[in-house]
Design goal:
GO molecular function, one term: DNA binding
Subcellular location: Nucleus
Number of strands: 2
CATH class: Mainly Alpha
Helix content: 40-55%
Keywords: DNA-binding, Nucleus, Repeat
CATH architecture: Orthogonal Bundle
Main location: nucleus
CATH superfamily: Homeodomain-like
Strand order of the largest sheet: 1-2
Number of domains: 1
């Protein structure tokens, strides 16, 4: 992982793919302290990432209750009915 550097007075944060170690640090910190104040999570977990990146990683990939895989016929029917009712909101 790249070292923290300052460029024009701003911290340079890591970009690109997350490592397994970063995932572990983020998951461990959230398990112990909860998922609030993402900027503080990024700093306190020892990650060289911005708060937004940490939030998106947690919500889209690391949360334990994320459902992966194909959707059921009932779920597809619900989606279609809601889209018909609400449109593209």
């Amino acid at each position: 992982m790249a070292a923290k550097k300052e460029e024009n007075g701003k911290k340079v944060v890591s970009r690109g793919a997350w490592t397994a170690e970063e995932d572990r640090k983020l998951a461990h910190y959230i398990e112990a302290n909860g998922a609030k104040r993402w900027k503080n999570i990024a700093l306190n977990a020892g990650l060289n990432r911005c708060g937004k990146s940490c939030r998106l990683r947690w919500l889209n990939y690391l949360r334990p209750n994320i459902k992966r895989g194909n959707i059921s016929d009932e779920e597809e029917d619900l989606i279609l009915r809601l889209h018909k009712l609400l449109g593209n909101r």
